[in-house]
UniProtKB/TrEMBL annotation:
Residues 1-18 form the signal peptide. InterPro entries: Solute-binding_3/MltF_N. Keywords: Signal. The keyword Signal applies. This is Amino acid ABC transporter substrate-binding protein. The keyword S-adenosyl-L-methionine does not apply. It comes from Campylobacter cuniculorum. Residues 18-244 form the Solute-binding protein family 3/N-terminal domain. Gene3D superfamilies: Periplasmic binding protein-like II (3.40.190.10).
């Protein structure tokens, strides 16, 4: 649901519809709530940059747990989503995505610091943690289905924090995730984890919209392309990660 913002300009009241953006509250450094209680992170900062390319783009950020994002989009509480979301067949049937991705994620198998898994064969009979509905959950579900001989067990969690603590406490054997996120959260939580050299997939992520919001999708996509062309998208990645993942 778009929020109406009112501005007085030369004595004239200007109505600007702010786009309600559903984003994350704990997925640091991409989407989280900072110490001031404000939405922050790579995805949020990127959208703030995109506002500068189109006077009709004005974003209002609504940080929520990941499992509330799509419900919010379905109920029109949000106009779009920004939370490192990958395409899937099911999602493409229901939603539309920005014309191009804004980030490319490499997913590694991550374990507790003292767990030894150094080969695909070592995944046999192991338990994987996954946040319900997340990109990582979809990827490990897909991998387990394609490799039934490994007998991988998937344990689901409502949020990222409890999943990582379960990993550190050996309640699960591994997770599949972006090393950037895992290391940042582990450091904040004071737990030790290990990033293995095992990667399952490179995943591209997009902004997500309801099918009825084609105009909004087009505006965001055009602004994203301009940010890519003038180097601001690349520079933002370098600022956060010292590497261009875009």
């Amino acid at each position: 649901m778009k929020k109406i913002l009112l501005f007085a300009l030369f004595g004239i009241i200007v109505h600007l519809q702010a786009t309600e953006v559903g984003t994350g509250n704990t997925y640091k450094p991409f989407t989280y709530v900072d110490e001031k209680g404000q939405a922050a992170g790579f995805d949020v900062e990127l959208l703030k940059i995109l506002q500068n390319y189109d006077e009709k783009l004005e974003f209002h950020f609504r940080p929520v747990p990941f499992n509330a994002l799509f419900a919010g989009l379905d109920s029109n509480k949000f106009d779009m989503l920004a939370h490192q979301i990958a395409k899937t067949k099911e999602r493409e049937e229901k939603y539309i995505f920005s014309d191009t991705p804004y980030f490319n994620v490499i997913l590694n198998i991550i374990t507790a610091a003292d767990t030894k898994i150094d080969s695909i064969k070592g995944l046999q009979n192991k338990s994987f943690g996954a946040v319900v509905g997340s990109n990582q959950a979809l990827k490990i579900e897909e991998y387990a289905k394609k490799n039934p001989d490994l007998k991988i067990k998937i344990v689901y969690f409502k949020n990222y924090g409890t999943q990582l603590l379960a990993l550190a406490n050996h309640q699960i054997d591994a997770i599949l995730d972006n090393p950037i996120v895992a290391l940042d959260y582990a450091q904040s939580a004071g737990v030790e984890i290990k990033i293995t050299d095992l990667t399952l997939q490179k995943t591209s992520v997009y902004f997500v919209f309801n099918k009825k919001d084609e105009d909004l999708k087009n505006r965001v996509s055009k602004a994203l392309q301009r940010a890519r062309e003038d180097g601001k998208l690349k520079n933002l990645s370098l600022k956060y990660f010292n590497k261009d993942y875009t």
